[in-house]
Structure formats: C-alpha cells, structure tokens
TrEMBL record, chains A, B:
SUPFAM superfamilies per record: Homeodomain-like, Tetracyclin repressor-like, C-terminal domain
Keyword Cell inner membrane included in the entry's annotation: no
Domain HTH tetR-type: 1-54
InterPro entries in the cross-refs: BetI_C, Homeodomain-like_sf, HTH-type_TetR-like_transc_reg, HTH_TetR, Tet_transcr_reg_TetR-rel_C_sf
The protein's name in its UniProt record: Regulatory protein TetR
Domain of life of the native organism: Archaea
Alphabetized UniProt keyword annotations: DNA-binding, Repressor, Transcription, Transcription regulation
DNA-binding region: 17-36
Amino acid sequence: MEATFRALSEHGYSDLRMRDIGDEMELTRQVIHYHFDGKYDLMSSFLEYVIDQYEGSVAVDAGADLRTELDARVEQCLFGPEFEEFSHWDRMKVYHELYAHAQNDERHRELFNEHYERIRGSIVEVVEDGIDEGVFREVDPELVGQLITDAIHAARGRRISLGHDDAPEQARRAVDEYIVESLLADRETTDD
Amino acid sequence: MEATFRALSEHGYSDLRMRDIGDEMELTRQVIHYHFDGKYDLMSSFLEYVIDQYEGSVAVDAGADLRTELDARVEQCLFGPEFEEFSHWDRMKVYHELYAHAQNDERHRELFNEHYERIRGSIVEVVEDGIDEGVFREVDPELVGQLITDAIHAARGRRISLGHDDAPEQARRAVDEYIVESLLADRETTDD
C-alpha cells in the first residue's frame, strides 16, 4: 500500500501503471496481479487502506466538553493525523484526486460515500449530544453536520487545487466562529 | 468551445485527444492547432470560456434587500444558470474535473483562483453592505464569504462525485439557516 501511495504521488491516478507500483517495491507486475485483479481492484484496496488509517486515528479526549470535542473533530479532519512515512497532505492529495474520479467509478463512489457518512456521522453525534445536554440550541443535526463536513472538504481541496495554504486554518476559524458559535444555546434569545 | 465541451463530457480530461475535439466539429487537428498551441492552450481557453459564461450570468434584482440578495447569489452558484445547449451540471462536471487537476497546472490554477476571488468577492460585498446598513452584525466579511463559497463548492462536488442529488438543496438550506441567519444583527444580544 505504501508503494502504491508513492507511485500515485509521483504519477497521478490517470497516468498510473501497474509497473510503476511494482517499481516502488521491487516486485514484478505478475506478483501484483496475483494479489489484485488489475489496477482498478488495487486502487479500491488502496482507497480503503487510506480511509481506514484516517478514521482509525480520530481520538478525542473523553473528558472534554461538547464544543471542545466538536472543534477537535474538525481540526483532526483539517490538519491531521500525521503518520510516519507520508504527511497528511500527501495523503489528502491522492484522496482528493480519487474523489474527483469517483463520478466515473461505482466502487470508489461507494467507498467515499461510506467514509463521508462516518465522518459526518461523528459530527452529527456531537451536535445531537449537545442538544440533549442543552449546550446547543434545537437545530437539524444532520444539516449542521453536513455543512461542517462540506466546509472541511472544500478547504482541503482549496489548499490542494488552488494552493491556498491558509485554507484549513480559515475553515477552522470560520466553522468555530460562524457555525459552532451560533449553535450555542445561551446565544439564542427570540423564538421567531 | 461547444465542441470542446462535448468532447470533454464524453472522454474526460485525462483521456481527451485533440482529435476528439476535431471529430465534434468536423475539423482536422491541423486547423485546431493553427488556433491553439496544443491541448493545454485549448483547455485554458475553454476554462476561461466556461468561467466567463458563468460569471456573466449572475443577475440579482436591484431592489432586493440584502439577505434576499445574498440568498439569490448562493442559489445562482448552486443551481444555475441554465444555457441552451448544456445544463448547469454538464458544465459543473467539467469544471470540477479540471479543478482537481489544477494542482498540477499553473495556468488553470491561476484561472480558478481569479474566478474563486470574484465569486467570493461578490458575496463579501453583500456581507459588507449588510454590516454598513446594520442588517448584519459585525463579522469578518472575508471569512464569512469564504465559508459560504466553500459550502457551495463542496455541495456541487458531492452531487457530482458522490451522486448526492439533494446536496445543493441541503447546502442552500444550511447556508441560509446556520450562516446567513446567524449574521442578522437583531438576533444578537450579548457582546461577550
């Protein structure tokens, strides 16, 4: 998988050949084909690997209040996690490239949908807990969770596609100041 | 340009050959090469064409109040405009595919950046007017404009890449209910 990652970073998805992946780990194409049914199958396994690694790493302090937990989840999606061999942004570059291709690829689309569902779900859950505890006002948790997930996704994409290095930090501030802040129950006064 | 559009829709950016564009308008590659310095130059011209058409069409009722104007601009970016030959989503599919490739393409990155700047700018302007007129509270217009632009972009991308047909409508509601609503000056009570 790390070899696939290196080959993808170097060649991009459209130009990637099985041979490039073999080169990265000194294996022949035959050996790779023994384990994977072609480039398509390998890419699907690779996407699952990237997503698993990403999701497995989200850890939030159990004692934190709900606003802090929400902010921590947003930050995790925007800035981390860091692993040994490749940076968060190396991974995200590949992730966003495969995402753009998912319109033509049912299996990838399914994997991205499952992942999106889980990321949004983890945010929705915190919003729901906040409403139950009276910390947040009565909002539509699904709609808020989706809005925050979208803001995160677009900011990462802007950093990658447009070179806006400050996009993730902008998104962190904007989500905190204009979405999370407006959820707080004690800000609300009128029920109009 | 319409021939380029048809060829792009059919073959995608990575697999597009000059010959495919020629086929769409019954011209030879030689004639296209006489006008454009290769696929790259043609793609840049095409991107400018799509962006110009898109931007030129944003029209907002001059007598509308500022919240209505802001909502109208958001809707325009999410749902329209419709032109004769191709739908908004046909165009957006190509737009988002080129966007994902802009990380490797300085000229496209520049064009997307200029376009992004103008779209965000048109939203920032309305927010600034709203603050001046006391309709919106004192917020950072740049940060709010960026957040709204990001939410729009991600929702369009989700519809295209993940097949979420309701993503634009979700984004319209979420931006209105959780961002624009929280900008309203008369909702604010405490200056903490």
